[in-house]
Amino acid sequence: MLLKPIRSALILALLATSSLQGCDHNANLTEQELIRRAKDFEDKGNIKAGVIELKNALQKNPDSPQARLLLGQIYLKAGMGAEAESELRKAQKLGVNQEIVKPPLGEALLLMGEYKRVLDEIQPSEQTSRPNLARIYQMRADALLKTGKLQEACNLFQQSLDTDTNNPPTYWGLAQCAAADHNMTKAREWLDAALKINNQQARTWIFMGDWQQLNNNPQAALAAYSNAAKSDPNSLEALNKHATLDISLGQLDSAKTDIEKISSLAPHSLLANYSHALLSFKQGDFSAARDSLQEVFQIAPDHLPSLLLSGAVNYSMGSYEQAASQLGKTLEKAPGSAYARKLLAATQAKLGQDKQALATLQPLNPEQSNDAQLLGLAGDIYLHTKEYTKANQLLEKAASIDPKNAAIRTGLGISLLASGETARALADLESAAALDTGTGARNADTLLILTLLRDKQFDRALQAIADLDRKQPDNPLTYNFRGGAYVGKNDLANARKSFEQALAIKPDFFPAAANLAQLDLQANNPAAARKRFESILNIDKNNLPAMMALAELASINKQEKDYVTWLEKAVKTHPEAIPPRTALARLYLTENESQKALDLANDAVNINPDNPAALTLLGATQLAINDRAGAISTYTKLVAKGQPTADAYLHLALAQIANKNPDQARTALQTGLELDSGNIQILDTLLRLDLAEKKLEPAVQIARQIEARHPEMPLGYEREADILVAQKRLPQAIEAYAQALEKGAGSTAFIKLLNTQFESGTIKVAEQRLRDWLKQHPGDNAVRAYAAEYYMSTGRNKDAIAEYQEIRKQIPNNASILNNLANLFQLEQDTRALPTAEQAFKLSPNSPAIQDTLGWILVTQGQTVRGLDLLRKALAKMPDDPNVRYHYATALVNTGDKAQARKELTQLLADHPKFREAMAASRLLNSL
Known about the structure:
The N and C termini lie far apart (about 75 Å). The protein is mainly alpha-helical. Among the domains are: about 455-505, no CATH class; about 845-928, Serine Threonine Protein Phosphatase 5, Tetratricopeptide repeat, CATH 1.25.40.10. It has 54 helices and no strands. Keywords: Repeat, Signal, TPR repeat.
């Protein structure tokens, strides 16, 4: 989804609180009078009032082409692309000339990120005027630029300029072209020329500020952003740019002033929350940053700078899976973001995905780079993979480079001008990260420290922490890092001192308290851990993370009453917070207290009627209690809210699938894809719908779409292989499974590969592959169990026993494994059969499979009475299992009940003439 200009957040916030009925004295105004009033308000910059007047005009005449056109144009000014498109198309249907509608319609499509539609639909005709022709050329050039066709775009920008010299966006486009060609002087000339046009000057000044940042002139950039704000005092973008640069320069008081102004203009807007999140992140208050970002995602789940910032926050808080997901989404939208790429690689390395981390870094070409941070990160990962020569080369090079200068260039490695709107949005965070010389945490330093801590380079981490400490002597985050390094060195005394120093600076600094609590738990002192969080609550009695931490402590100690108490307190003090409600609802569901869970979820929606997370909780709860119709109703409301997300449509689709409405589910999924064309869960759900309907070729196409959009992930290749197996195209399936495994697929994909190889007849190759896998993954019990079953099916009972014994060493009290072993011992006439079966039965006395195994062994060893009783119980639970029926009939024979045995065997062979023990059953029947 394309980011809408930030003014739209303000307009949406204003419109949400406004009645569209107008005042009573407007009731007697005519349609034309209302339209004139709307134009007057628009000219004065009062967009909210203009929209209200036009809505009133349309109430009088819904078919007013003039009102529809003007409303579309006003929505366009507000940055509301979808709304603008709707009104402009209505105006065209009502008779407004296509040549009038075409330019604003193109701008609306650009706002929505519909670049292909711009190129397909917005084309000049013989009737197009020269000014409109220039605008159309410029819009098509913008669309080409966004799709990576730089040269075509630049040629078209020049054609736009040749047609009309009075269109500022043409000059912005030419400046981007010059920047892409590394001609910053020419880029400045184009922006100077745009400033001479008395139109859209605020936006031109913003581009000028970006240009100054690229040339490492932060003070000149601040002046340019100030000029933008003077030109348009309500420009949230200008205020945001100024605040972000202030943060990067350590001028936090000035940044705070800008952020407060943003909040006053748009109190609960996306930008206000994002700005607060960025400032909190720079101050090391990750919890506050996370809370502000949650507010952002409720407004715009795909807001790219927030996704990137949230990835950094989650990395800093140790939530690596979530960080990887958010950073991956960021790189999908902006593959040129060096900051996101490095942070994703560090996250992948933290998750043990070193190969993927190196692949993520490869586009940055670490070997040829002069970025000390990149070199250090790549070098550390190579150390992890034991490629010592490469690691030493990179780390020695990193040590010889001034990281401060490298950081400046790295932070601006993505051109604010050259890469278009997406890059400009990301540059806010990246430039702040790179240029920070003040009291906020340096992202370059932070990432280096975290990377060193991750890879247990604790002495090097302490050196980096000392460097950061000199820059920020009173930053609790620095002491928190130092404590982490000492924990790694097992110097717990100094670790405690460091964490306690962080709390001395900021007594409610939650990360340090959490780390001290972990040390307390390791020392088997849960009471001390509890006091850490209680101390935070003494300072801030409503601190939500502390309450949630106390709930988690209670859960760890199996103190369910305290767990519930803390969650209930969190709900009471933060009624709008969803996480404690979610935790409570899950607990109630596991305890079969469905009504309590449902009441909790309903309360969340009543308190937060417009909160997508609340609706998601209610829908999930309804689905869990099998209220499919209720879940569909809730998710339908969710997608009807302001800006529905792709995930909202996914939730709706899953509820519809559960309700056996595949066609409606497919419609919801397709709508979700329109919002997020690369959403892997939606694509996979569509694929599985196709498979359920035996639409194999469409399913293959979706699998390949997943591969193209997520080439680093195994899912697409595994799904394609599954379909190829269904089509009996086994060699191609084997190749696809192998690709999935190269991408990191696990045991399930490997077992599928083996099954396919066995089916294709390449048995020796499959067996060797199986042995190699178990040597490389000795703890993979899923594959080891598969090996045991395979050996058993091929009559190699001793090999099967060896595999199950190996599993038993790792999982000594698994009833299912013991049961299988007992069966194998029985087949091999091994005296361990009975004691092993007894052990399995002791662990799971009500399992019919285990009852059958033990009962049969007892019968064969002459303990017929007890064996018959167990077999009778197994048969009651598995009346159609032929093997259990055969065992039961044999036991009847042994107890002398031949008549009943004859009856059982006759019916058994009629029902299952070819089951595994059919010959033995037939012989037994003939003997009676």
